[in-house]
Amino acid sequence: MTLLEARDLRVEFVSRGRRARAVDGVNLSVAEGEIVALVGESGCGKTTLARTLLGLERPVSGSVRYGGTPLAYSSRALKAYRREVQLVLQDPTGALNPRHTVYEAVAEGPRIHRLPDEGERVASALSRAGLRPPERFFGRHPHELSGGQRQRVVIAGALALEPRVLVADEPVASLDASVRGEILALLLRLRAELGLSALVVTHDLGLAWNIADRVAVMYLGRIVESGPVEHVLTAPSHPYTRALLSVLPDSPAPVVLGGEPPDATRVPPGCRFHPRCQVLASGAAAAAGVDGLCVSRPLPVLPSSPGAHVACHHAEATMLTGRADDRS
After folding, report:
1. pLDDT at 10 (0 to 100)
2. What integer is the mean pLDDT of 40-64?
3. Residue 18: which residues within 8 A CB-CB, separation 6 or more?
């Protein structure tokens, strides 16, 4: 069952007369017990989309749905919703008040929601997050903990509310390589033990490969490719996905993208990736007869259904050619 969903979501910001289309038509879903990775370079709209799914930003159109019901934006409705859908921030040092003890940090959520058995909730959450015995950490302050322990405290703070979905924004970006695997293993264990769903926002495709069931690749405010993680990361169809994958250590050669970095105030006509597209620049799009479409015809918003989807004129033409060859 789909638990958290964005339907044709659009979020805009206006500054000095310029309108930035930060999220420009996104369909995205997270099912019960599923981990979805949202990947893309900085500035593509990942964090804005995550904030909108949490109710921290309001869309100009489209909707956020939880359990099939559109999100309401009254204070009471948002408070109830945020007990079910919890945020795990990128920087555990910035997320924790340096004056609060670990106990106070984890107990903050249950106190806001006036939940019973505070001490038991805090101890259970810390234990599930891998800080055992939990009582040993109650009186400690953030500066007395390692980076990995601080991230576990942040996760425990979310778990204390017994949520059904975690939205994790770059959850291991600030951690040492030796600790990253431990936090990823923790998220997988929480999914197995508690049935938690998660949306993991990251620029790291290696992380997506290790933790996600599905991956959605975002560029300039829109999902340009999505599907099962094995399909997207082993046989990417979109040239932007191939460029992202090319920087991984085992890639044969990096793809250097030309043109300007994406600017949400100036979305180009046609395919929004075409000014930087290596397929168009190499002449492969022209050989397939779609170069005119690339620069003039916009691509439709991809659906949120579980299958593999791509928004690329060249990929569509290639698939059609392959089907014709199969029939012949």
Report:
1. 98
2. 95
3. 265
Dihedral pair phi/psi, residue 270, rounded to 5° = 65, -145
Indicate if 40 and 92 belong to the same structural domain.
yes
Give whole-number Cα distances, 158 to 89, 106, 121, 190, 234, in Å. 10, 8, 11, 12, 33
- In degrees, to the nearest 5, what angle opens at C-alpha 54 toward C-alphas 53 and 55? 90
Position 251 scores a pLDDT of 79
Q: Report how many domains make up the chain.
A: 2
Summarize pLDDT for 284-310 with one digit per residue, the tens: 999 999 999 999 999 999 999 989 999
- Both 106 and 194 in a single domain? yes
| Per-residue pLDDT at 257 | 85
Are 101 and 156 in contact by the 8 Å Cβ rule? The answer is no
User: Residue 136 burial (CB < 10 Å; 0-12/13-18/19+)?
Assistant: exposed
Do 41 and 139 reside in the same domain of the chain? yes
Please check whether residues 264 and 197 belong to one and the same domain. no
Report the distance separating Cα 22 and Cα 228, nearest Å: 25
pTM for this model (two decimals): 0.94
Domain-embedded: residue 13: yes
